[in-house]
Amino acid sequence: MTKSVIQPLESYRLIQYSTPIPCYICSADNTTDAEFCNHCSAPMALAHQANVRGVQPRMVAVVGPSGVGKTVYMGMLLDMLSQQSRKMQLLARGAFSINLQQTTMSALSRCEFPRKTPNEPDRWNWVHCQIRLPQQRNSLELIMPDMAGEAVLEEVDHPHTYRIVRQFLQKCAAAVVMIDAVQLKEGNREQDFFVMKLLSYLSELDNDPRHGWKRRPLALVLTKADCCEDCWDDPEGYAKAHANGLWQHCRERFACHRFFASGVVGNSIACDTLTEGRLYIPLRIEPRGVTEPFEWMLNQMKK
Ligand SMILES: Nc1nc2c(ncn2[C@@H]2O[C@H](COP(=O)(O)OP(=O)(O)O)[C@@H](O)[C@H]2O)c(=O)[nH]1
Ligand SMILES: [Mg+2]
Ligand SMILES: [Zn+2]
Does residue 205 line the site of ligand 1, with CB under 6 A? Predict the structure, then answer.
């Protein structure tokens, strides 16, 4: 014999699903309890935070080929800005915004570089932060993801394959574009080609003469400058000498751009391992030229 039981339907729970929440990156509707957007995989925490605070954060991109040093640069930048008190100050919004700084700084403190960024967008670290500029009353809300170089290249080569990359770059107010100074010097043209493709993609993504990428600030950062001393004094001259096509491209298509040099470690050595191949070990942390491109970019955005 089966005993009859009363099973409450709790259909009131379904009411919450009647109001969809639009994703902050691609604007597609999602249910209230979705962790990542169903359409582009961006974290829905970005949309919830924007709704709660009633402010629309602006977005900035840090892009470049895989292995150029984006993760190390962003982690160090966040760490430096969150610790300085007199100049530009950064305050993370939400616990998830601290992950990138935490993973980078804890790897560097163990004399290691952080692991490679996965290609899957739901595994990227996103940063939502508030920036206070010196002598300014109003602060700035920013969103920055640490995207994998391969995903960006895939979208650039085959547009519409990575919805998140396309939607994000379309809405970005400015970008830091990174190029490996060591590879340029060694004559490896891959960096040059990647960045030129990316810049063409951006120009086509939004070619509005007033608000399109032509007018948006672009900081071109030569990374790993600790290994090529000659790029510190004149980063633009270095780019002109070693990546002339890229330099010309910027001059013709981007009204607001500047070249910078940056290095996070003072010295690193290569070590061949049996399991993971060649690994680079940072011997000392000596950030140089890390905050300058970012500060320049924010100042240009204000204009
Ligand atoms: N010499 C030097 N090497 C760096 C620096 N930053 C990154 N690297 C090297 O570049 C590799 C890739 O860095 P990562 O930030 O993961 O690159 P991403 O793929 O662009 O995110 C690291 O494992 C290091 O070997 C730097 O400032 N100086
Ligand atoms: Mg990375
Ligand atoms: Zn989305």
Answer: no
- Is the pLDDT at 12 greater than 90? The verdict is no
The pLDDT score that the predictor gives to residue 138 is: 82
Q: What is the pTM (predicted TM-score) of this model?
A: 0.93
How does residue 231 score in pLDDT terms, banded at 50, 70 and 90? very high
**Which ligand has its closest atom nearest to the C-alpha of 168?**
3
Mean pLDDT for the chain overall: 92
Over the stretch 128-143, which tens digit does the pLDDT of each residue have?
Answer: 999 988 777 788 999 9
Ligand 2 mean position to 159 CA, how many Å?
21
Instruction: Kindly list the protein residues that place their beta carbon closer than 5 angstroms to ligand 3, a single-atom ion.
Output: 23, 25-26, 37, 39-40, 42
Instruction: Look at residues 57, 218, 66 and name the one whose alpha carbon lies nearest to residue 144.
Output: 57
pLDDT at 1 > cutoff 70: no
From residue 12, alpha-carbon distances to 18, 22, 30, 161, 179 in Å are 11, 22, 19, 38, 54
Residue 224 Cα: closest atom of ligand 1: 28
CA separation (Å) from 214 to 144, 146, 178, 218, 253?
Answer: 20, 23, 18, 9, 6
Q: Which CATH superfamily is domain 56-302 in?
A: P-loop containing nucleotide triphosphate hydrolases (3.40.50.300)
